[in-house]
């Protein structure tokens, strides 16, 4: 096993992502010491019982002396968490996060991050619909992208820290990409945020129909609908914060999506089979390109690593 990237990491928030980082860092030897904090005492106790690391009584205590502090909390809590750890960040420490939105995440953390620490936001593109420390597993990040959205600073210290954090994620078996935060938010709006919004919406529409259709929606729910219900089981706090903090990109994407949907609606109404066939053929081609790029597989559960 290679030498640990960090002597000491602190993980604030021990849910699915925090617990998975703790497990992966221990499993792949990316950190020697792991301190943890979760604001929910019961969750923190469970993280301790799972032996994910040393559980501390406050975020400040967990962050004290850490080389890298990783905020694994909902996007809406990043500001308050940075404020909580700011006084304990040692000189040269990396402050990072795993939030699914990056421009607002940077703003929220930058307000409280002291100058002697290096703020490098991040987002591992890996997850499941489950929450809590028990949901975490050490191979969650394997072969998944981890996007880092550093500030535009080019000072040598900062560049070195970006390389260090990249090495950490690579040790957890992630593929690292550096991206502009606004660009990240635009891309994720269509690839992740909108699909979740659609899943939440289709499931609640079906639930409303269920009350008039006498249980038949659930009884005959086919594979397509079942996949939506799995996505719609995702944590409501996390997803509320994603939509509140990526408002511009999501609304723009939703506008384009609604126009395209209206075109399909029109084609159905007018019996325009050619348009439907062309659109479906084009979409099938996109799916083929994703498979060929190695970003998904045809195996059960789309080939994703799950617990
Ligand atoms: P999770 O399982 O719900 O865990 C989040 C944990 O953080 C909860 O235990 C929560 O406690 C705790 N927390 C909230 N505010 C806190 C604070 N101020 N101080 C300390 N702990 C606090 O959520 P998750 O799925 O790990 O998501 C965490 C982050 O990862 C989010 O920003 C999300 O956008 C990002 N992310 C998630 C996925 C995914 O698929 N789930 C993928 C990539 C990135 P309470 O429950 O008491 O609030």
How would you classify the helix and strand content by structural class? alpha/beta
Q: What is the ordering of alpha helices and beta strands?
A: EHEHEHEHEHEEEHEHHHHHH
Total count of strands = 9
Gyration radius, in Å? 21 Å
- The count of helical stretches stands at 12
Query: What is the topology, as strand order, of the major beta sheet?
Result: 3-2-1-4-5-6
The level of helicity is 40-55%
Q: Could you say which small molecules are bound to this protein?
A: NADP nicotinamide-adenine-dinucleotide phosphate
The low-confidence parts are: 300-307
Tertiary shape: globular
Strand content: 5-15%
The main sheet comes to:
6 strands, parallel
CATH homology-level superfamily of the largest domain: NAD(P)-binding Rossmann-like Domain
CATH 2nd-level architecture of the largest domain: 3-Layer(aba) Sandwich
Q: Which fold name fills CATH's third level, the topology of the largest domain?
A: Rossmann fold
Q: Give the termini distance in whole angstroms.
A: 23 Å
Structurally, the number of domains stands at 2
CATH hierarchy class name of the largest domain:
Alpha Beta
Question: If you had to describe this structure to a student in words, what would you say it looks like?
Answer:
The chain has twelve helices and nine strands. With 307 residues, the protein is an alpha/beta fold. The chain folds into two domains: 6-179, Rossmann fold, CATH 3.40.50.720; 183-292, Orthogonal Bundle (6-phosphogluconate dehydrogenase C-terminal fold), CATH 1.10.3660. The protein is globular and about 65 Å long. The protein starts with 5 loop residues before the first strand and ends in a 15-residue tail after the last helix. Bound molecules: NADP nicotinamide-adenine-dinucleotide phosphate. Residues 12-18, 37-40, 43, 59, 72-75, 77, 80-81, 98-100, 123-124, 127-128, 131-132, 235, 238 line the site of NADP nicotinamide-adenine-dinucleotide phosphate (NAP). NADP nicotinamide-adenine-dinucleotide phosphate binds next to helix 1, helix 4 and strand 7.
């Amino acid at each position: 096993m290679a030498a640990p990237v960090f002597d000491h990491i602190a993980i604030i928030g021990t849910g699915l992502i925090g617990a998975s980082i703790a497990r992966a860092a221990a499993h792949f030897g990316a950190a020697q010491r792991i301190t943890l904090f979760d604001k929910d005492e019961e969750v923190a106790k469970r993280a301790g019982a799972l032996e994910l690391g040393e559980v501390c009584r406050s975020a400040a205590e967990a962050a004290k002396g850490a080389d890298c502090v990783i905020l694994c909390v909902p996007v809406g809590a990043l500001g308050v968490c940075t404020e909580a750890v700011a006084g304990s960040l040692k000189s040269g420490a990396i402050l990072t996060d795993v939030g699914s939105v990056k421009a607002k995440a940077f703003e929220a953390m930058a307000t409280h991050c002291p100058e002697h620490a290096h703020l490098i936001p991040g987002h591992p593109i890996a997850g499941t619909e489950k929450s809590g420390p028990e949901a975490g597993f050490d191979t969650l990040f394997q072969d998944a992208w981890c996007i880092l959205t550093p500030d535009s600073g080019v000072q040598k210290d900062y560049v070195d820290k970006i390389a260090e954090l990249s090495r950490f994620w690579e040790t957890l078996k992630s593929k690292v990409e550096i991206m502009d935060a606004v660009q990240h938010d635009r891309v994720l709006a269509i690839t992740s945020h909108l699909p979740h919004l659609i899943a939440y919406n289709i499931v609640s529409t079906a639930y409303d129909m269920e009350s008039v259709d006498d249980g038949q929606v659930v009884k005959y729910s086919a594979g397509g609908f079942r996949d939506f219900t799995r996505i719609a089981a995702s944590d409501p706090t996390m997803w509320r914060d994603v939509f509140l903090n990526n408002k511009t990109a999501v609304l723009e994407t939703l506008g384009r999506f609604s126009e395209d949907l209206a075109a399909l609606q029109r084609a159905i109404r007018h019996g325009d089979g050619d348009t439907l066939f062309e659109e479906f053929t084009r979409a099938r081609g996109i799916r083929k390109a994703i498979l060929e790029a190695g970003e998904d597989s045809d195996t059960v559960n789309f080939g994703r690593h799950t617990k």
